[in-house]
Design a protein that fits this description.
The complex is a heterodimer.
Chain A (H helix, E strand, L loop, with lengths): L1 H44 L4 H5 L12 H32 L3 H13 L4 H16 L4 H25 L3 H9 L4 H29 L26 H9 L4 H28 L5
Chain B lengths: L1 H6 L5 H6 L5 H39 L2 H4 L3 E2 L4 E2 L2 H32 L2 H16 L2 H28 L14 H25 L3 H9 L4 H11 L1 H17 L2 H6 L17 H8 L6 H42 L1
Antiparallel strand pairs in B: 1-2
Helix pairs in contact in B: 3-14, 5-8, 5-11, 6-8, 7-8, 8-11, 8-14, 9-10, 11-14, 13-14
Classes of the chains: A mainly alpha, B mainly alpha.
């Protein structure tokens, strides 16, 4: 009997140790997040000023800011949203409402797999199909690269949201004699609109942090944008260029720009989570 | 809707596919949506074709030797991808070695142990780690993680495990190990999120059965893990796919030197960082073509890896999805 009791104690001890370890893993992950965020805030706040937010980059020692990069990032987000959101939503509608057969399954698989393709590959692809034929970097090419990254993300979230719409709504509308396209446009999509919108916001947050696909499509610039047909600055590329530069002043500016970028990205994520509290 | 399509079952298949309700507007709408869906397939094909077409020069010049040659020497026109393949695989493996136990721990804690009012907010915080842009991790890696590794972790590893060739070499804080570590932080939220879904879809009856037989909490968790094994494998492979293609953060801390070294302290170079660093300054068609071929390799590998992962994860979460959620 004593033997049995000992084994039993060992089992309980193992259980206690392992369940403590799992809690420790979680604490460490949250700690990593807190450390990273506080470090960014601490480093970034020092160089942040109104002048920094509206000025364009200057040579080392003359200050300068990220105004052009903020404008550039917004332009890139606008272009990519203009292409990416409607196409992504349409693909989502197809996957949820129409493509139920084998072809629909194939498309779903491809869309899912596309979300995992490295963004730098998309950059190379857009370079090959847009930058090479046009012979120069452009805001347009950068926007298209971001749109290509956006489409699969929007498509999958739209599909998930449309699937949450109760079948009785579709059946009710069909029973009233509405054709399928009117049911989808007039009943199903409006019912899922808040979900689709949050999915779109998450996709925008995701691409606003992208750097790799912009390096050789939008390229970067030290001036305010004047045309979509020329290279354009973005927050992320600016952070990268300043981070790998040898100057302390530019490092400080990289941290401040990071603080601005993180406010945008985390702001969207937290707002979305707040709006969709009920579902998760 | 099935009642509606049954009514028109006498129509030809083609007609039914386009418009099960026999409405012209439906036919137009379906064709439009179908075209957009075809666009998705088109994008994948276009990527493959465009990348292949632009790497023809390099493929013709080097053939399969491109994959096995160690020499990346743009000045003399010699291009071999082996150092990049090594750096990519090695950094990803280091990342998985560190992040898989952590991700499993996090997922187990959030699904099996933590009460709802803790699991929800904490789960969100862990997911926020995935929302931090790659370039931000890179910046943090250069100025915080790199110096930390140089001062504390690498000297400690060198003194304890220095007898292994893995932990010899100059201590700079920048190199394969730091690259792998930053990748680990980046893939942990991705793997743990998928594992959470997988564990949640294991039916509650499995847990009840284990507990009823007198299992401890941990023994019950092991039963759940065995049940979710294929999905967990899928999650890990998904993390691998992400680690293979991650660009900015790795580029900023891995040192970017196309050499194969046994030591994890030495600088290395990945496929993605080679493209990011050298693409805009590639002089000459062969140089550019070799870089595009690197992109093609990365595309094909990540496509296959992600495909496998999706199939594994789908199989688990779909079979039991509805049952497990209630538990």
């Amino acid at each position: 009997m004593t033997n049995y009791g000992h084994a039993d104690q060992m089992r309980r001890a193992t259980s206690a140790v392992m369940t403590t370890l799992t809690a420790l893993c979680t604490v460490l992950a949250v700690a990593a997040l807190v450390v990273i965020l506080f470090y960014i805030a601490w480093q970034g706040i020092g160089s942040l000023s109104l002048q920094f937010l509206i000025d364009r980059p200057r040579p080392v020692g003359e200050g300068g800011g990220i105004g052009n990069a903020i404008v550039g990032s917004l332009v890139l987000l606008l272009i990519s949203s203009a292409f990416g959101l409607p196409l992504g939503i349409c693909v989502g509608v197809y996957l949820s409402e129409i493509g139920r057969g084998r072809f629909g399954g194939t498309v779903r698989f491809i869309v899912d797999t596309l979300t995992g393709i490295p963004s730098i590959v998309t950059g190379v692809f857009v370079y090959a199909i847009l930058v090479l034929p046009m012979k120069h970097f452009s805001a347009f090419a950068g926007g298209v690269a971001l749109a290509l990254i956006m489409i699969p993300i929007v498509a999958r979230t739209t599909e998930e949201m449309l699937k949450l719409v109760p079948h009785s709504l579709r059946e009710g509308a069909l029973a009233l004699g509405a054709p399928q396209w009117r049911v989808i446009l007039g009943v199903v999509i409006p019912a899922a609109a808040p979900g689709i919108a949050t999915g779109a916001m998450l996709a925008i947050a995701r691409v606003s942090g992208e750097t790799a696909p912009l390096l050789f499509t939008a390229f970067g610039s030290r001036f305010f944008p004047t045309s979509l047909n020329e290279p354009i600055a973005s927050l992320t590329v600016q952070i990268y260029n300043y981070a790998i530069s040898p100057y302390d002043e530019w490092h400080a500016q990289a941290w401040a720009a990071t603080l601005v970028l993180m406010t945008l990205v985390l702001g969207i994520n937290i707002i979305v989570r707040f709006l969709t509290r009920r579902k998760f | 809707m099935s009642a509606v399509s049954e009514k028109f079952a006498t129509y030809s298949t083609w007609r039914r596919v386009l418009s099960p309700t026999g409405n012209t507007g439906d036919a137009v709408f379906r064709i439009l949506m179908l075209l957009v869906a075809l666009l998705m397939v088109g994008i994948v094909l276009a990527k493959m074709i465009a990348l292949s077409a632009d790497s023809v020069l390099s493929i013709r010049q080097f053939g399969f030797g491109f994959l096995t040659s160690q020499h990346w020497d743009p000045i003399n026109g010699k291009f071999g991808a082996l150092p990049f393949i090594y750096g990519t695989v090695a950094s990803s493996l280091i990342a998985l070695l560190i992040s898989v136990p952590f991700s499993l721990g996090i997922a187990i804690f959030l699904v099996e142990q933590a009460p709802h009012y803790i699991a929800k907010p904490v789960g969100f915080l862990v997911e926020l780690l995935a929302a931090i842009p790659s370039v931000v991790y890179g910046l943090w890696g250069i100025f915080v993680l790199g110096p930390f590794m140089r001062q504390y972790i690498q000297p400690a590893l060198a003194s304890w495990l220095g007898w292994l060739p893995l932990f010899r070499g100059t201590i700079t804080g920048i190199g394969l190990l730091t690259g792998g570590l930053i990748l680990a932080i980046m893939v942990t939220p991705i793997i743990s999120a998928v594992v959470r879904d997988v564990l949640a879809s294991v039916p509650g009856s499995q847990r009840e059965a284990a507990l009823a037989l007198g299992a401890t909490k941990w023994e019950m968790i092991r039963v759940v893990l065995v049940n979710g094994a294929p999905g967990i494998a899928g999650a890990v492979i998904l993390g691998l796919g992400r680690a293979l293609g991650e660009t900015m953060a790795v580029t900023m801390v891995i040192g970017n030197r196309p050499e194969i070294s046994l030591s994890v302290f030495e600088p290395s170079y990945t496929i993605a960082s080679a493209i990011a660093n050298e693409f805009t300054e590639a002089t000459g068609d062969l140089y550019l073509s070799s870089l595009v071929e690197l992109g093609l390799i990365l595309f094909l590998v990540t496509f296959i890896v992600n495909g496998i992962a999706r199939v594994l994860v789908w199989n688990v979460t779909r079979q039991t999805g509805g049952v497990g959620r209630a538990a």
